[in-house]
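Input sequence (178 aa), recorded before submission:
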Amino acid sequence: MSIESSFLARARIHAALGDPARLAIVDALTLGDASPGEIAQTLDLPTNLVAHHVKVLTDAELVTKGRSEGDRRRTYLRLRPETLATLATPRLTGVGRVVFVCTHNSARSQLAAALWKRRTHRAAASAGTQPAPGCTPARWPWPTATTWTSTRPAPPTSPTSSAPTIWSSPCATTPTRN
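Predicted structure, token format:
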């Protein structure tokens, strides 16, 4: 599947979920299979409107229809979780580390780097275009005894890795408190 077709497929799914009634149908189906009549009753929608929304969800491959196992007379709707899973953004690959840049590197970029490291277990650093001597105590919810030292940006690639570095700027300036 090419990148373009992947984006188109994800856009189609997002469009199908963009209507509140269709999103409610998907939410109802996360609890288990249901007939269109049960969905209509649960959501207090007319059955013809439910049929329209089910068609859109089926065309987007979010929902499948199947017959009851007993007498095969009733139709049931089933959610396709594998389609919902395609909505997750692809994992970031081929990146050696991330550098968060803030003007003074006194709070936000350091917090962003710490959160990135903890969440992804990957290398991250913080940097400042005009580094302050240390962390601004008013920015942190924990005691001022916890200090962070400012760091300077490193070269775009690590000497041990040829993977590129992502540079992110969580703030342009550090606002002051009055």
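Checked by second reader. The chain has six helices and five strands.
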